[in-house]
Amino acid sequence: MILFRCLIVIAGMIGFLNPVIAAPAVSYGPDIGLERARQLAAVAAAEAQRMHLRVAIAIVDTAGHLVYFEKADDTQTASVEVAIAKARSASNFRRSTKVFEDALNSGRTSLLGLPGAVAVEGGVPLVHMGKVIGAIGISGASSVEDGLIAAAAVNNIK
What we know:
Radius of gyration: 17 Å
Number of domains: 1
Order of helices and strands: HHEEHHEEH
CATH topology: Beta-Lactamase
Shape: globular
Oligomer: single chain
Number of helices: 5
Largest sheet: 4 strands, antiparallel
CATH superfamily: Haem-degrading domain
Number of strands: 4
CATH class: Alpha Beta
Helix content: 40-55%
Strand order of the largest sheet: 2-1-4-3
């Protein structure tokens, strides 16, 4: 009986996290290069400027290592680390950090135990030719605004 209860609890936990972590995303491809990272950051910076926002922009490779970083003058100091963390989370989990934010907002607090998962919108995988080549992380505005700025860059991947 105890074994049966344990199995039910484990099955419930797996089902509880399933929408967040179980669905495999696209495979990894070759890492994003510096020039492409600069181009995407320029698109993000232009979108932030258009929105009159000061943000930090981080672009990482498939392993979550920083490829390119910039921040607008007078961006809040904490945004530096947050942008990098959002990008790493999006690359390492191959999904947008908004997925984690939405799951957390719907009560799935167990995802807070996932190492490196950032539950704040603004980190988005960079997909080229069906493969993840890295990710972008934006921080400095509201999470929705960070997500819009990241989306502007993602929509310009060539």
